Amino acid sequence: MRSKRSNSFKDFYKLFTLRSKDTMFGIKLSRDSFSKEAATMWVLLGLAVIILMIFLTWSVISYPVSRPNSSVASPNAQTATLVFSLKDTKRVFRGEVTPDMTVLDAMIASIQAGQIKMLYSVNRKNKTNITEIGGHRVASNLGTYLNSERIDIKDLNKIVIKPGDTIEVRLD
Q: CB burial class (10 A; 0-12, 13-18, 19+) of residue 157?
């Protein structure tokens, strides 16, 4: 086995130190065998391999790592739910929660999406007043709940919601 290694090394060495009547693998070699065209081909092949390695390294490094999507794992991960329970109708809305979003902001977004009419105002004392919702006049019989806890209508523009919250607006 050692002699085979020696012979293959000798054959490899012969490629670079050719003499006029050398042979390798039964093929007669001469210095003319390594023309400029062959040298150019080997250089271009080497450059192609280097470029391929750079491209493969770049594609592995820049390929985005897949992470589980939190909204798929839990449907309430980034959303809140708003339920309008009016006399004869019940409408449910689910939407994305933005930073510093209040109950009133969520109601406004839902009524715009659901084409529900709501008349409201915010007075100088920063108190909310709702006079009509979904075609129903509102007196004191409108109940608003955040996660099943009653909240005061006057504070709808002050109470900030978070993902996973459930808001219910109903005529009591």
A: middle
